[in-house]
Each structure stands twice: as C-alpha cells, then as structure tokens.
Amino acid sequence: MSVQYSDCLVAVVTYNNGEDLQLTLDKFPKEYPDKHYPYSVVVHVDGSTDGSDACLKEYPYPIIGNKTNRGVGKAIKNSIEYAKKNGFKAIVIIPGNNKNYPSEIPALLKPIVTNNVDYVQGSRFLRSSKEDRRRDNTPLFRIVMVQVHALMFTILTGRRCTDALDGFRAYKLSVFDDPSINIHQEWLDTYEFETYLHYKVLRSKKFTYAEVATSKIYPEDKKGIITNRQGKKYSHIRPFVDWWRILRPLLFLITGIKK
Length: 259
Description:
The protein is an alpha/beta fold.
C-alpha cells in the first residue's frame, strides 16, 4: 500500500507538559497543509490537570483525549483509532514535551513514503549530515540506559537498534491490522505499549523497519533524582515503577505470558 505525505497524521500527545506543550506547537508551521508539511495534525490530551491544554484554543488542530490520565499507551491507541476513522494511512507520534523538533517529521515519514517502510524509529544516536540533529543536555544515566535498552532489542530481535525509547516515531496503520499484534490489551495502556510494538515489529519478518537520525533536546536546568531538586522536571517516567513497565513486555512476550 503506497502512502503519500497527505495520507499522514501527526499526533501530538501530551499530559501535564506545562509550557512545553505550547513551545512544541509553536514549532509547527502556522498554516496547514502546505507544500513543505502536507500532513494533518491532531493533539491528544491525556487528562492533563495542570492547565497546559488551555493554550490549544490558539491553534487550529483538532483535540482528542481522555478525561482522566490513562497513560501514554492509551493516548497512542486513541490517536491510531482517530487516524483510522479519518482515512489516514500512516501516523507520526511526537511528545508534547518540547524535546523533539516538528521540523524533523518529514525525515521520519520519508522512508514510509519513498521506500514503503512499515515502522520508523527516531534515534538520537544516529549521525546525520545535518548539523541540527543533536542530543543536548541529555543526562548521563539516560544516555547509558537508552543504549543498553537498544542493545537488548538488537540481541533479542536480530535487527540493529540504536534507540527504542524515543517516543518520536512513525507507523503505517496497516501494521495494526496484523492479527499477531493486539494493541487493545489493557495492560498496554502505559509505557508497555511502545516496548510491545517495537518488539513485535522487529521480531516479525512481515514488517520493514528503519531508524532515522532525530534530535532529542533536554532542558539545560533539569531536575535530577538526587541533585538540582529545584530544576525543571523533564520526564514523567518514575524510577523502578515505570522502568518495570517499560521492560516487562519483553519478559512477557519471550516467555509467552502475554501475546
């Protein structure tokens, strides 16, 4: 199934992202669609309680979401269903936390549009000829964790993986028609979803997969687990509790506990 740029939907997913949501949306072109960004945009609000979604009245994008916080997995599922119902063929997920660049969306979509790739992962560790591909201010722990996590995927799937934790990704919606992939399981509503889908696609011989170089910019004055407790919070991921949620799909799928 061929996909054109106009067949693609960009879903901005947000939960209590404060001013970062508006900073993310301000990086999008003011007019849609145009010759450089011929895709559509939707914003998914996952039960935000910090008032950050009030800024959405300033933008022309449709808004979908949950009344209460359900988790990033549920937000992505809702966005996929919205894309299907509205006739799109591919979707880009971009977090509303001002750490990714909307200007790099065409780079994510290019493998899908030009090479019919099924799944494209943005990677902060791939080099690019463009100078704007950066990973500024990334915490050392996050650099190590992301690379170890990616190595696990490389070993378990046999496909080279450099970054499986950046939420900046693109999928062909036909992936979700495959009976071996069941994204509607409730246990996939939080951080499990992305690990589950990544493993399913990379393990399968049915799907083509690519990584592209993208940026991941953390705040300079970021809050640490131990140091700089007054700094800016840069992630909703909680130590141990959410680390387990990220990793457990690998254990469940390998052992057959879950499908």
